[in-house]
Design a protein that fits this description.
Blueprint: E1 2-4, E2 7-12, E3 15-19, E4 27-30, E5 38-44, E6 49-54, E7 58-63, E8 68-70, E9 73-75, E10 81-82, E11 86-88, E12 93-95, E13 102-105, E14 111-113, E15 118-122, E16 126-129, E17 137-139, E18 144-148, E19 151-153, E20 159-162, E21 172-175, E22 178-180, E23 187-192, E24 197-200, E25 203-206, E26 215-220, E27 225-228, E28 231-234, E29 243-248, E30 253-256, E31 259-261, E32 265-270, E33 275-277, E34 280-282, E35 293-298, E36 304-306, E37 309-311, E38 315-320, E39 325-327, E40 330-333, E41 339-344, E42 354-356, E43 359-361, E44 368-371, E45 374-375, E46 378-379, E47 382-386, E48 400-403, E49 408-410, H1 412-416, E50 422-424, E51 428-429, H2 433-436, E52 448-450, E53 466-471, E54 474-478, E55 480-482, H3 489-502, H4 506-519, H5 524-539, H6 544-560, H7 565-582, H8 585-597, H9 602-622, H10 640-651, E56 668-669, E57 680-687, E58 691-699, E59 704-713, E60 716-723, E61 730-738, E62 741-749
Parallel strand pairs: 8-11, 9-12, 10-13, 11-14, 12-15, 13-16, 14-17, 15-18, 16-19, 17-20, 18-21, 19-22, 20-23, 21-24, 22-25, 23-26, 24-27, 25-28, 26-29, 27-30, 28-31, 29-32, 30-33, 31-34, 32-35, 33-36, 34-37, 35-38, 36-39, 37-40, 38-41, 40-44, 41-47, 44-48, 47-49, 48-51, 50-52
Antiparallel strand pairs: 1-2, 2-3, 3-4, 5-6, 6-7, 42-43, 43-55, 45-46, 53-54, 56-57, 57-60, 58-59, 58-61, 61-62
Helix pairs in contact: 3-4, 3-5, 4-5, 5-6, 5-7, 6-7, 7-8, 8-9, 9-10
């Protein structure tokens, strides 16, 4: 008899039988043994083989069907080829110890760790497919893993870590492992709805011409994560969608000390606000450089980006509807057309410290932006690009700008409004005063006031630095110096709330943010305070009641401020985000779709589309209505890889070539050419900002002949072709509608 806990196996002269309930019922496992008494039995679980020693008839071996179940403490043997799934059950422990060597898996097989099971060990183990792709290790909700010094190869997804809101999450630790030449998949490490995971000191080593994955580390709706001191080494780049780290939703996420080499997308942050600290992101190649992005943030309201080094990326930091803190980040690019910081769709990063009572708290500022590329005697490198109501705050920030073109450029007048100024005092510029800011777009352009580079006291030793413990041995020290800088009353209150937030006094921070919204509703600080309220609730691990109350607060503010477009746009989006946190993601998708249907604002549409795709990811990976499809079915991704592609396509549209990178200053519809024409003519038009465009052709009686354009377009110069084949000679009219801009012109078809 062979016994494992409640699992009994008996060999008889008529076969081998198994019971999983202490002998109450029995199931035949194998037949065909000789008619002879069995005197001993040996079970080899990893080979799924049972050997029976018979009386006078030798030893017989029987191959068993089914998966391999681990219910006790078992060591994984070396040098075996496993053609069954291994399932680590509740109470079972699978160990990789004692220098486990190579373990091969046949195609499609995997190790699954169930709730209460554990996989552990420091082993020098190598796991790879037996010439084919195996499915890796899957940690299910409640499963535990401590993997150290393992080598993974030929896997579609080496490690998947799943969680569940109703199952406690023991810590999962992946350290000192190597992921090599793995097959195409969404991520080498996938983390879905799981908290308390450490990914540290690992290496991704992909050789030339390998079938790379789109994301090395991919997390969805997961909190309390440490991604630290990993190395991502790619020797080739065949797809612009490759990324080292992607984080979608989550709280208390730390991304620190990682070295990322040769990836088009370094770190992508979606709908969360992590601490991104001392990462080196280097892209030394020149092809397609202007399609590369060091750090991308979308819908991220309180991220902290500190002391990161980004080298040779077309865009250093890309912000979409995001307002992070930026402190001592370095961006260097002298190879191609480059922009250090791109701010789009209500993005208001802070690049200046807090000022309070004569003290300066250096949680932001002192960034250095260098972009010096010149092509055919034209300068292309720029410092900060602004679009879609985005206003960075770098007044008294002691930032350094060293660029070949404008230090600040983009749709500045539209971002600031007619009577606002972009103050940028006490920063260092490498160009003349008139070239600091590309702001000569309107009759009354906004102004840029540059300064000398900071006060004489900015480098004084900090008397009482602020130390923040992020956990897992990660600390942030914020220096405090003396400097006498006066700020507006709304900024003073907002910065005071910021200080409460970073020191963990969230209740006080919420009270001050609400006061900013109440007393200074028409200010940029009020818009940013709306976002900060949601972030503070997240940091407090608020319950559904608190999020319901916050949603009601946003809805009330919308009704009270219907004429303030930017304020209402932000509040509408935040109210929908509360639905996700309440546990109603499908309702959130419905609200985002209403936003899309009620606007022609391309920036607002883009923001809602991104939120819909990212919310679908949560639904598909949490088991909550996975089959739900909203009214805009084209936004529902087929899976993680499709979702990531949809997101990247929207966030990172290719820039124009060098002959057409200058953004027009005004809307314009040009006369077609040639004119008269037969049968083809071309129509050019210019857009100073992103907008929905409709161009239609009518005959002389006003009847619609053809729609040439009906879609959202970025700012730029465009050309569309009209083919008059099949039409009669005569006069035709073409008309453009782009936001509030409307124009029409006449053209003549002569056959």
């Amino acid at each position: 008899m062979f016994r494992k806990s409640k699992n009994l196996s008996v060999a008889t002269d008529i076969g081998i039988f198994n019971s999983t309930n202490n002998g109450i019922t029995w199931l035949e496992l194998a037949e065909g043994l000789p008619l002879s008494p069995v005197i001993d039995i040996d079970y080899l679980p990893y080979l799924k083989i049972m050997r029976a020693a018979t009386f006078g008839m030798g030893v017989w071996q029987v191959k068993l069907d089914g998966d391999i179940y681990i219910t006790d403490n078992e060591n994984l043997p070396s040098g075996v080829t496993i053609d069954k799934n291994i399932i680590v059950c509740n109470g079972g422990v699978l160990n990789f110890v004692g220098g486990v060597g190579t373990v091969k898996f046949t195609q499609g097989k995997q190790i699954t760790v169930l709730n209460g099971g554990k996989i552990t060990g420091n082993s020098n183990a190598t796991f790879y497919g037996d010439g084919v792709s195996w499915n890796g290790i899957v940690i299910e909700p409640g499963g535990e893993a401590d993997l150290d010094n393992c080598f993974f190869d030929q896997t579609s997804t080496p490690i998947t870590i799943n969680g569940d809101a109703f199952v406690s999450s023991p810590q999962v630790s992946i350290t000192n492992c190597t992921f090599f030449c793995n097959n195409a998949g969404v991520g080498a490490i996938n983390i879905n709805n799981r908290n308390n995971v450490i990914i540290e000191n690992n290496t991704w080593a992909y050789p030339n011409n390998s079938n790379l994955q789109r994301i090395a580390i991919n997390t969805i709706n997961s909190s309390d994560l440490l991604i630290n001191n990993n190395q991502f080494n790619f020797n080739t780049l065949e797809d612009a969608n490759f990324s080292a780290i992607s984080v979608d939703y989550g709280n208390n996420v730390i991304i620190s000390n990682n070295k990322i080499y040769k990836l088009a997308k370094g770190i992508t942050i979606l709908n969360c606000s992590p601490f991104v600290f001392r990462n080196e992101i280097i892209y030394p190649l020149t092809p397609s450089i202007f399609q590369s992005y060091g750090i991308t943030l979308s819908n991220s309201y309180s991220s902290n980006l500190k002391q990161n080094n980004i080298t040779n990326y077309g865009t250093g930091i890309k912000l979409q509807n995001s307002s992070p803190l930026l402190f001592e980040n370095d961006f260097i690019n002298n190879l191609e057309e480059a922009t250090a910081l791109v701010c789009e769709t209500n993005s208001s990063p802070r690049l200046r410290p807090q000022e309070s009572g004569g003290q300066t708290i250096w949680d932001a500022g002192k960034n250095e932006f260098e972009a010096l590329y010149t092509y055919q005697n034209v300068n292309y490198g720029s410092g900060v690009f602004l679009n879609d109501y985005s206003i960075p705050d770098f007044n008294y920030g002691c930032n350094i700008f060293n660029t070949s073109s404008y230090n600040i450029t983009g749709d500045i007048a539209d971002c600031l409004g007619l009577y606002y100024y972009l103050f940028a005092r006490n920063n260092t510029w490498n160009v003349n005063h008139e070239d600091v800011c590309d702001a000569d777009w309107e009759t009354f352009p906004p102004g840029c006031n540059e300064g000398s580079g900071g006060s004489e006291n900015e480098n004084d030793p900090p008397p009482q630095p602020i130390v923040i413990n992020y956990g897992n041995g990660i600390y942030d020290t914020i220096q405090v110096t003396a400097r006498n800088v006066q700020v507006n009353t709304d900024q003073a209150l907002y910065l005071s709330a910021n200080n409460d937030e970073i020191t963990g006094n969230f209740t006080s921070a919420i009270s001050k943010y609400e006061q900013v919204i109440q007393d200074y509703q028409d200010s940029l600080t009020a818009v940013n305070s709306l976002r900060k309220l949601l972030h503070c609730k997240d940091k407090m691990n608020a319950d559904t009641t608190a999020y319901s109350q916050l949603r009601a607060y946003y809805q009330a503010k919308i009704q009270a401020n219907l004429t303030d477009t930017v304020f209402v746009n932000v509040a509408e989006e935040l109210a929908a985000k509360c639905l996700v946190r309440i546990g109603k993601p499908t309702n959130a998708i419905d609200e985002y779709e209403v936003i899309i249907s009620n606007t022609n604002d391309s920036a607002k549409i883009l923001c809602a589309e991104l939120n819909i795709i990212e919310t679908y990811l949560i639904i598909q990976n949490s088991g909550d209505s996975p089959n739900y499809t909203g009214q805009l079915g084209y936004l529902k991704p087929a899976g993680k890889e499709d979702a990531y592609k949809k997101i990247m396509d929207r966030l990172h549209k290719n820039k124009k070539d060098k002959s057409n990178i200058n953004i027009p200053k005004i809307f314009k519809l040009s006369q077609n050419y040639p004119n008269p024409f037969n049968p083809i003519t071309k129509i050019n038009y210019s857009l100073p900002r992103a907008v929905k465009v409709n161009i239609q052709v009518y005959d002389i009686l006003g009847r619609l002949v053809k729609t040439l354009v009906n879609e959202n377009k970025d700012a730029g110069n465009y050309e569309v072709q009209f083919d008059g084949t099949g039409l009669a000679s005569g006069v035709y009219f073409y008309r453009i509608e782009a936001g509030e801009f409307k124009d029409s012109k006449k053209m003549v078809l002569v056959k």
